[in-house]
Structures are given as C-alpha cells and as structure tokens.
Amino acid sequence: MNQKYNSDVEAVDGLRDAYQQLRNEIGKVIIGQDQVVKDSLISIFSNGHCLLVGVPGLAKLYW
C-alpha cells in the first residue's frame, strides 16, 4: 500500500482510514479487548514492539 499523498493532511486521513478498517476487521475476531487491539495497532503503525501480558491460558497475539 505504497500510496503517494499530496499533503500531510491526506496522509493522516489515509492512516486513519487504514486504522479504522483494521480495527473493524480485528474486532470481528477479538471481542472485548478494544484497548489491547488499539495499543497493538499503534505499535504496528509506529514500527515498534508490543508485549502482551495477561492471564495464563488465554491466547495472546504477539509480533
């Protein structure tokens, strides 16, 4: 998805749209963990790392 934008405003709008689409699709599978999904997507978009800690026995997604 290498798209050229004419301005920073268009780039931010594109990021917002991609974020909403991803959040909607992930929300279909991961239910009740909105903050975890949000924090994970922020980590992905910022090219960072994410450590998920939770109750043992629950599936955790990490990358």
Quick summary:
With 63 residues, the protein is mostly helical. Helices cover 51% and strands 0% of the residues.
Name the assembly state.
single chain
Briefly note the structural class of the backbone: mainly alpha
SS element count, helices: 2
> Can you give the mean pLDDT?
83
The succession of helices and strands, N to C, reads HH
For the termini, the CA-CA separation is: 20 Å
Largest sheet: none
Number of domains: 1
Q: What is the number of beta strands?
A: 0
Low-confidence stretches: none
Instruction: Classify the beta-strand content into a percent band.
Output: under 5%
Percent helix, as a range, is 40-55%
Question: Describe it for me?
Answer:
The longest helix is centred in the N-terminal third of the chain and has 20 residues, at 8-27. This protein has one domain. The radius of gyration is 14 Å and the shape is elongated. With 63 residues, it is mostly helical. It is built from 2 helices and no strands.
